[in-house]
């Protein structure tokens, strides 16, 4: 894949030295970029142009990075990579819960940064339209899921729109119901570290979608030491 065709990356980082490290790495691999030293400047720029991916520091001078994440996921759809020096696992977990696609901890190796950037950008590439399979609708356990619109409809008719990552995860389950799927299978062969448990957090977020409104997400089962399983009958139309 040609990195120069990947599009624009916004770097939201108030530490000038870290920003230079990130942008220098991006330049070496052929990525275009813009740098913002505050959350406010970044959010204002989005009104004119949204990037293909944003690398976001959580410790910004004018607002908390978590607040920026919430605003982004409520209004925009592009890749989000957290770059943080915070050692508390809670911050990283909360960032993923709020919709970030991945995180990298400072100090980081340039190649690790690029590997995570590439992985996220691949998720947001439009899928080739070969047939009408993307128009399929899955029915399971009283729920309906529309692949093309990412729309999830509850048994009592309440509609919700899933994020891209959530939709890809649910589709993987629905295409192979009642089968144990490993973390690698659920990531569809994307870059994954043996120590990276972000897929577990994505499954947790997906379960919470089903639990809204007093429903149950227990049909997504954890098979300890093996992966996850969707325990439901699925019909496609």
Automatic annotation (TrEMBL):
Q: Which residues carry this modification: 4-aspartylphosphate?
A: 57
List each coiled-coil range: none
Q: Repeat as a keyword? A: no
Lineage, top-rank taxon, reads Bacteria
Looking at the record, the residues that make up the Response regulatory domain are: 8-121
List GO BP terms, alphabetically.
regulation of DNA-templated transcription
Gene3D superfamilies documented for this protein: 3.40.50.2300, 6.10.250.690, Winged helix-like DNA-binding domain superfamily/Winged helix DNA-binding domain (1.10.10.10)
* Every OmpR/PhoB-type domain range: 135-232
Location(s), subcellular = Cytoplasm
Which SUPFAM superfamilies does the UniProt record give?
C-terminal effector domain of the bipartite response regulators (SSF46894), CheY-like (SSF52172)
What GO cellular component term, any one, is given?
cytosol
Q: Which residues bind DNA?
A: 135-232
Q: Which UniProt keywords apply?
A: Activator, Cytoplasm, DNA-binding, Phosphoprotein, Repressor, Transcription, Transcription regulation, Two-component regulatory system
Give yes or no: UniProt keyword Transcription.
Answer: yes
| Molecular function terms from GO | phosphorelay response regulator activity; transcription cis-regulatory region binding
Supply the PANTHER family for this chain. Answer: AEROBIC RESPIRATION CONTROL PROTEIN ARCA, REGULATOR OF RPOS
Recorded protein name is DNA-binding response regulator
């Amino acid at each position: 894949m040609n990195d120069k065709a990947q599009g624009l990356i916004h770097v939201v980082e108030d530490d000038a030295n870290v920003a230079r490290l990130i942008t220098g790495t991006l330049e070496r691999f052929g990525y275009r970029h813009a740098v913002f030293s505050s959350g406010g400047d970044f959010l204002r720029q989005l009104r004119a142009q949204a990037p293909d991916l944003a690398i976001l520091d959580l410790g910004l001078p004018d607002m908390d990075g978590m607040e920026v994440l919430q605003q982004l996921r409520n209004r925009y759809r592009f890749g989000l990579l957290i770059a943080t020096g915070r050692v508390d696992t809670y911050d990283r977990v909360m960032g993923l819960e709020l919709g970030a696609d991945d995180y990298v901890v400072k100090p980081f190796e340039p190649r690790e940064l690029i590997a995570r950037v590439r992985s996220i950008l691949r998720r947001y590439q439009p899928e080739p339209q070969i047939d009408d399979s993307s128009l399929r609708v899955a029915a399971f356990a009283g729920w309906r899921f529309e692949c093309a619109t990412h729309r999830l409809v509850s048994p009592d008719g309440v509609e919700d729109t899933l994020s891209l990552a959530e939709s890809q995860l649910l589709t993987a389950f629905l295409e192979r119901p009642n089968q144990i799927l490993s973390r690698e299978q659920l990531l569809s062969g994307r870059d994954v570290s043996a120590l990276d448990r972000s897929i577990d957090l994505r499954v947790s977020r997906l379960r919470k979608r089903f639990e809204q409104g007093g429903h149950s997400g227990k049909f997504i089962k954890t098979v300890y030491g093996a992966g996850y399983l969707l325990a439901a009958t699925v019909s496609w139309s």
